[in-house]
Amino acid sequence: MDLKRKLAILADAAKYDASCASSGTKRRDSSGSDKALGSSGGAGICHSYAPDGRCISLLKLLLTNACIYDCLYCINRRSSDTPRARFTPDEVVRLTLDFYKRNYIEGLFLSSGIVRNPDHTMEQVIEVARRLREDHDFRGYIHLKTIPEASQELIEEAGRYADRISINIELPTQKGLEKFAPEKNLPRTRDAMGGIRERIDAARDERKQHRRRPAFAPAGQSTQMIVGADGASDHDILHRSHDLYSNYRLRRVYYSAFSPIPSSSPALPLKAPPLVREHRLYQADWLLRFYGYKVGEIIHREQPNLDLDLDPKLSWALRHREHFPVDVNRAPREMLLRIPGIGVRSVMRILSARRHGRLRLGDLGRLGVSLKKCSPFLVTCDYSPQPSLLEGDRLRLRFLPPPEQLELDLGAPAHDPLAAISARTGEI
Amino acid sequence: MNTYSIDPCFASWRTAARRLLSARIDPQDILWYDGSGTPPLFSGDLDGLPPGEAPRIPRAFFPLAEMVACHRDPLRWSLLYQTAYRMTIGGKSRLLDQAADPLVRTLNQRAKAVSRDRHKMKAFVRFRKMGELDSGREQFSAWFEPEHHIVELTAPFFAKRFASFDWSIMTPDRCAHWNGRELRFTDGVPASEAPTEDALEEFWKTYYSSIFNPARLKLNAMQSEMPKKYWKNLPEAELINDLVKQAQARTHGMISRPPTVKTPRPPSGS
Predict the structure, then answer these.
(1) Residue B130 belongs to domain spanning
(2) Chain A: nearest CA to B45, how far in angstroms?
(3) Architecture of A3-199 per CATH?
(4) What is the pTM of this model?
(5) What integer pLDDT is reported at residue A259 of this predicted model?
């Protein structure tokens, strides 16, 4: 099979992994070397964007899409009739270096279907990373997907070459895994993540003492959950995320709305969940990590799914009107962060600006805050919202999306306006 | 009202601004000329200014000012002088903390635009391979059209990342060249000088179309990060229209095709 055909098959097979981050690793570059290639550290760079709105930062490939597992949501499961291909390690090394030199990518994201057994597969993946780092002195970014069933020594080796390593948890509950991914199991995945966390912590401590000690996955570990393939609720998903962030110090949990795949299993829903659900989960995730919300404030067992119409921060504010309006000239940082429409950076600007004088509503506009969303919830020295604004249903209605916003809602019923709302991740 | 002539770079503005500040010249009394636009009829003489000690500009000014100086706004030199004046003679040494101040807001917006442009340059420059030296050292070349005057400020990023081959980045304003030891800058060139092909682009385009998921078309999200003005210099962008056109049919095909009910193959090596 020619290389271009393999590339087409094995990139297609890799696209259901949402992670493409290339930021937050150790700073390094190739200054003063006539052999080394690449640099990393600092902000990630997105070298292109596909029409699905996703950034292309890394060359995202599977080493092979043959797989002995039969996870129903996966296009590469052994019962799927998708065409199969396999790269040699050298082919991946060549493509990575050639793409990198042309400034198409920040580095490589390498995953693989499981062939023969988990250790054998892991060895092949590591071999690509080893050749890049040792034979070619590659200093760009490497993300390796690891397999929970692989031996600890191999995970150890992967972390020495990779900036980031990840294990996909796939579904938030053991029940879901039993039904959809019979070879996978939650306790084993958690054990493996725990092992990785210990190794990352140990390497960081060692490097504090001796700066020349080798790094271990300096950009940390991440994972991915598939949304909308099984019956798991947002409550299940967000509690699992909270577990992963607090117990395993994951850098990121990615949410991937289940996407229809060719030759799917009859056990799966035919239609994709609305992309806005994925978007709301990312917003909730941001609230957990950067805004100081507790998971129980965002989601309850009685109402186990996020409101698709309103972002979770606004929903919280509407449920807790007794905390508003907030005085932007006096309120502590934690409370400023809870004002709908004001993001982390705006809060920093407000804190810095109010040291020099009392803020008026116009000042907030000049600080880059969108007044339309936040004005019912705050007080400045020249403005306070009408008290009636915070009462009754009018406030909620004010924020509901207009009924006609349809465009490009592929795969969703034509009368569902939610499916059309663009689902970007980002600040709230 | 005097017009003072400088070279269009931060270092030249800085030298002139120090002289003007030491003579306590009010921002309202001067204009700046950096070689673009109509030359002034009368020029002020910096050396003829009354001598004095230059006030110390707070350190926080410089990283921001260096960015603003790259902006294409013809008023940037004047904005910078107003800022430097207020931070020194005006007594507002912490001026930059006041993000709601109209002048500070304008500076921040200019700096942000420059920073974004630099980021896009790091992302969207596409090298094409031109050949190899006898020593085996590879040579690459790229064409890019930045919005602001960012080539000099951004070239060191490429020199650190791509130290081990020779490269040139050509733009209409300025060109940067790296030979493994030093960065060199030359005048801008017309687009006709741009390198035209690289056999590897077929692989890159194959990758681009394969990594795209037709079941989640989101054109606005793509275009807000990769605006159309960049497309003409991105080899993969010529695929976008066709990918979008076929997306609906491909997705429909996936959904309408009956699910595969197949006896699982026995596990095999590959």
Answers:
(1) 125-193
(2) 38
(3) Alpha-Beta Barrel (3.20)
(4) 0.90
(5) 79
